[in-house]
Design brief:
Elements: H1 2-26, H2 31-34, H3 38-41, H4 50-58, E1 75-77, E2 84-85, E3 88-89, E4 94-99, H5 105-113, E5 126-134, H6 140-153, E6 156-162
Parallel strand pairs: 4-5, 5-6
Antiparallel strand pairs: 1-6, 2-3
GO biological process, one term: protein O-linked glycosylation
Family: Belongs to the glycosyltransferase 31 family.
Subcellular location: Golgi apparatus membrane
Length: 169
Amino acid sequence: MLPRICIKFKLKYVASAVLALLTLEYFGAFTHMFEADFEQTFSYPLEGDILSYVYQLRHGQRPAVEPINGYNYSYITDCQHKCREDDRMIAPRLVFIVKSAMEHFDRRVAIRKSWGWEKRFSDVKIRTVFVLGRPAVPNRRLQSLIDLEYANYRDIVQGDFVDAYFNNT
């Protein structure tokens, strides 16, 4: 009889210990032991003199560090005129680049009339550009409305890529 009680007694402790360990694991108590110190071990791929990399890219040179994400798509519409005034290049002080879904016409109008209004300050050159893709299933009616909006506002950059929620690149 005594050995049976001992086995039952030990089984309770073993089961309790296993349950306690699983609970601690579930709540992340053991994760801290395997964490790396962020300040000492984190390294962003583009660490270095970012200004020199941008300068090299702007002047057609090969940067010392390759860009992480290349852009290999063509444009359906572009806004090169946004950085021009009187046929000369300008450097806007502030550029709003707004990612927008194709069907969000009302939202783009609201942005143009509120915080994206380019003439808000007479002494500050502000530009607002909306970036769109194309639908997964071609929609001529929607595309014609986008073309009409582009002709009216001239502030849409439409890339030739599928615009989907999981493709926000």
